[in-house]
């Protein structure tokens, strides 16, 4: 059996509808700020959904050379920004000596949809010569990882998870495994997404998945609330730097938290609806706890998938009760999607970071807009206000279309 190495988080990077940068996003989350507003990236007036969680005022130029910007779609811009923040935050340097031991796993759920729409239109109107020669690398999901590796010279394992809304969590979990078993010493990992486009919004709208509370965008994302009417699409990126404990200690790095558990499962039930009683989600949480070597009663906080959909919220709550029993009523659950919207492939990366920051600051971010609780959702969701609580272990849940599930367990690092 391979000796499993301990893995810690030493760098964080966030670009969200709440702000650009980790502390800006975290401060807004703790204040219960909504990042949801009218769509400005295209004319949504003909659509039933005209609101989203856009990243406002984002400029890629501090993170990407000017001549390279036009070769990438926005999801890659956001990924590079978040990865740059994480690397700068960590103080980790990729060198000739360690490059082959540093890897990247940053995924997306849908990739370069804006580029597809733009160049399909150009092709129909003016022919194939109007397609950019960079069109294919603009849209391919693994080019987020590819461009990050090129920027930092990371020559180790390079991959991209593509598991819908579980992408960010699978990326971090897979990176954790690579370091744990000795295939890398450091990994840049997380998720990114930017598909606030006519097809992106229109596609989810015809599924009746999105909230149509267009007149009250700040109140539209309301997980666990009886009057919720669907999720809100968001965009952004959440990227962490993971390192082996030995690597972090050798350079006296700041350690945010330790990652100790990773669970994966599939519902094998339906393409979009969770399995009855949240059975697949429950198995995933149990797998993460088992991997962490802890009992359910040791978890203090769950960052829920909590999308603000009827079945999603109710079945996740049922799954938590199934796994945690009576302790479900003692721990605290919250959905930061109430503020960011649902960042699809980026959600798991962003929410892992919120979980880590909760551990760091002994505070639980709120679930805003929880005004009339759904009777089926009867746990402590930190309604409307952040809650001070010492967190030893936090669990971050991500569940995606296709029934794919990922759960991560983080632990407060005690220096031992």
Automatic annotation (TrEMBL):
List the Gene3D superfamilies hit by this protein, alphabetically: 3.40.47.10
Q: Which residues form the Ketosynthase family 3 (KS3) domain?
A: 4-412
InterPro entries in the record? 3-oxoacyl-ACP_synth-2, Beta-ketoacyl_synthase, Ketoacyl_synth_AS, Ketoacyl_synth_C, Ketoacyl_synth_N, PKS_Beta-ketoAc_synthase_dom, Thiolase-like
Reactions catalysed, semicolon-separated, are: (9Z)-hexadecenoyl-[ACP] + malonyl-[ACP] + H(+) = 3-oxo-(11Z)-octadecenoyl-[ACP] + holo-[ACP] + CO2; a fatty acyl-[ACP] + malonyl-[ACP] + H(+) = a 3-oxoacyl-[ACP] + holo-[ACP] + CO2
One function term, GO molecular function aspect: 3-oxoacyl-[acyl-carrier-protein] synthase activity
Q: In which pathway does it act?
A: Lipid metabolism; fatty acid biosynthesis
Q: Which residues form a coiled coil?
A: none
Name the source's superkingdom.
Bacteria
Q: Where, by residue number, does the polypeptide cross the bilayer?
A: none
The active-site annotation reads 165
Q: Name one Pfam family in it.
A: Ketoacyl-synt_C
GO annotations of cellular component type: cytosol
Report the EC number(s), separated by commas if there are several.
Answer: 2.3.1.179
Gene Ontology biological process terms, A to Z = fatty acid biosynthetic process
**Keyword annotations from UniProtKB, A to Z:** Acyltransferase, Fatty acid biosynthesis, Fatty acid metabolism, Lipid biosynthesis, Lipid metabolism, Transferase
Which family, according to UniProt? Belongs to the thiolase-like superfamily. Beta-ketoacyl-ACP synthases family.
What is this protein's function?
Answer: Involved in the type II fatty acid elongation cycle. Catalyzes the elongation of a wide range of acyl-ACP by the addition of two carbons from malonyl-ACP to an acyl acceptor. Can efficiently catalyze the conversion of palmitoleoyl-ACP (cis-hexadec-9-enoyl-ACP) to cis-vaccenoyl-ACP (cis-octadec-11-enoyl-ACP), an essential step in the thermal regulation of fatty acid composition.
In terms of NCBIfam families, this protein maps to: fabF, PRK06333.1, PRK07314.1
**What is the protein name stated in its UniProt record?**
3-oxoacyl-[acyl-carrier-protein] synthase 2
Which gene is the coding source of this polypeptide chain? fabF
């Amino acid at each position: 059996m391979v000796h499993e190495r301990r893995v810690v988080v030493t760098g964080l990077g966030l670009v969200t509808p709440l702000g650009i940068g980790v502390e800006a996003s975290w401060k807004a989350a703790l204040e219960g700020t909504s990042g949801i507003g009218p769509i400005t990236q295209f004319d949504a007036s003909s659509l039933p959904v005209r609101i989203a969680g856009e990243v406002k005022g984002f400029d890629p130029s501090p993170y990407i050379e000017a001549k390279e910007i036009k070769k990438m779609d926005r999801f890659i811009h956001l990924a590079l920004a978040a990865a740059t923040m994480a690397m700068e935050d960590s103080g980790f340097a990729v060198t000739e000596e360690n490059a082959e031991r540093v890897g990247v796993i940053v995924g997306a759920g849908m990739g370069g949809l804006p580029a597809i729409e733009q160049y399909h239109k150009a092709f129909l109107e003016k022919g194939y010569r109007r397609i950019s020669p960079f069109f294919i690398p603009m849209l391919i999901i693994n080019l987020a990882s590819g461009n990050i590796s090129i920027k930092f010279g990371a020559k180790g394992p390079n991959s991209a998870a593509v598991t819908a809304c579980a992408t960010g969590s699978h990326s971090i979990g897979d990176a954790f495994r690579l370091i744990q078993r000795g295939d890398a010493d450091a990994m840049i990992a997380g998720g990114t997404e930017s598909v606030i486009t006519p097809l992106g919004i229109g596609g989810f709208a015809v599924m009746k998945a999105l909230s149509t509370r267009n007149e009250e965008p700040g109140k539209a994302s309301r997980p666990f609330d009886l009057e919720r009417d669907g999720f809100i699409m968001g965009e952004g990126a959440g990227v962490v730097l993971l390192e082996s404990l030995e690597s972090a200690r050798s350079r006296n790095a700041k350690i945010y938290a330790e990652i100790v558990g990773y669970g994966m499962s599939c519902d094998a039930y339906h393409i979009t609806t969770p399995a009855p009683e949240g059975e697949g989600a429950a198995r995933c949480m149990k797998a993460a706890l088992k991997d962490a070597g802890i009992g359910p009663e040791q978890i203090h906080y769950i960052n829920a998938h909590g999308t603000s959909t009827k079945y999603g919220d109710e079945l996740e709550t049922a799954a938590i009760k199934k796994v945690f029993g009576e302790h479900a009523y003692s721990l605290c659950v919250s959905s930061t999607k109430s503020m960011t919207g649902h960042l699809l492939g980026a959600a798991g990366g962003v929410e892992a970071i919120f979980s880590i920051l909760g551990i760091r600051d002994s505070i639980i971010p709120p679930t805003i807009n929880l005004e009339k609780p759904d009777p089926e959702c009867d746990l402590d969701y930190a309604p409307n206000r952040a809650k001070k609580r010492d967190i030893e272990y936090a669990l971050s849940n991500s569940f995606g279309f296709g029934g794919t599930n990922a759960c991560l367990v983080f632990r407060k690092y005690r220096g031992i």
